[in-house]
Amino acid sequence: MYDDILVPTDGSPAATDAIDHAVSLAETYGATIQA
């Protein structure tokens, strides 16, 4: 479903949650995270 996941970050708590979610998706679909 996903090959690459782009995760923009700004150091906020919401960005940390987004990173956690992106890691979960990447593990599930074998995707690469781009930050």
TrEMBL record:
<dbReference type="Pfam" id="PF00582">
    <property type="entry name" value="Usp"/>
</dbReference>
<dbReference type="InterPro" id="IPR014729">
    <property type="entry name" value="Rossmann-like_a/b/a_fold"/>
</dbReference>
<feature type="domain" description="UspA">
    <location>
        <begin position="1"/>
        <end position="33"/>
    </location>
</feature>
<protein>
    <submittedName>
        <fullName>Universal stress protein</fullName>
    </submittedName>
</protein>
<dbReference type="InterPro" id="IPR006016">
    <property type="entry name" value="UspA"/>
</dbReference>
